[in-house]
Design the sequence.
């Protein structure tokens, strides 16, 4: 299978981390950002949104990072990563959706408002507004994680992959953020995973002050 997308893309990183967790082999092709290539006719046919990540697995073409994660877990994951029971799946999939709809936009507000603009163009009122939203998310996570080792129970799930992917970049962009205790302990356990270290904790400094993709 082939996974397309630049390593500095946070949505691409999630998929690369999960591929490592699954232990399946794949070819990675850098695309988007400084690599370009998203506007070609060939790529548009594969993904009309002209975005990465994109997964091509034989004849199957999949875009949208969380849809890719769901596809991979259903196709290649054992019971640790995929449950045949619809309710059990909903227990971790709700965190994937919450992450994409609530937490990630707040994080992106800080990242695009703070890290990806030059210092003299930062609107710190807006950045702090987004930061407060992030803190609300972190406090919610803390309540859950003070009762449970991972977001959906005693073992890691796709919920932790999606939400956990945000924490490194959120806390590594130069803003002062104190993680609540249980979030911090959970974050430490994610950081000990090979795929998290390799992909999520990779260098993203080329994006500093870069206002286009
Ligand atoms: N909701 C989509 C977002 C896709 C997206 O916006 N990807 C960005 C990178 S994070 C992109 O392709 N930007 C253009 C570029 O990198 O050139 C997903 O999760 O896959």
Sequence:
């Amino acid at each position: 299978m082939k996974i397309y997308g630049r390593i500095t893309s946070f949505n691409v990183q999630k998929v690369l981390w999960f591929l490592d967790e699954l232990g399946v082999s794949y070819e990675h092709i850098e695309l988007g950002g400084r690599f370009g290539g998203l506007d070609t006719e060939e790529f548009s046919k594969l993904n009309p949104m002209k975005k990465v990540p994109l997964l091509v697995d034989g004849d199957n073409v999949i875009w949208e990072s969380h849809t890719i994660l769901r596809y991979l877990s259903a196709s290649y994951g054992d019971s640790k990563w995929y449950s045949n029971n619809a309710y059990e799946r909903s227990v971790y999939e709700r965190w994937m959706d919450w992450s994409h709809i609530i937490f990630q936009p707040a994080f992106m507000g800080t990242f695009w408002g703070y890290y990806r603009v030059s210092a003299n163009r930062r609107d710190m009122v807006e950045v702090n507004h987004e930061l407060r939203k992030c803190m609300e998310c972190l406090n919610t996570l803390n309540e859950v994680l003070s009762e449970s080792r991972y977001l959906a129970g005693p073992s890691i799930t796709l919920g932790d992959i999606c939400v956990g992917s945000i924490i490194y970049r959120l806390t590594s962009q130069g803003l002062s953020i104190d993680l609540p205790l249980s979030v911090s302990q959970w974050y430490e356990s994610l950081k000990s995973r090979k795929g998290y270290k390799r992909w999520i904790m990779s260098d993203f400094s080329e994006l500093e002050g870069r206002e286009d993709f």
Notes: Helices lie at 10-22, 41-46, 65-76, 86-115, 124-145, 158-171, 181-191, 194-200.
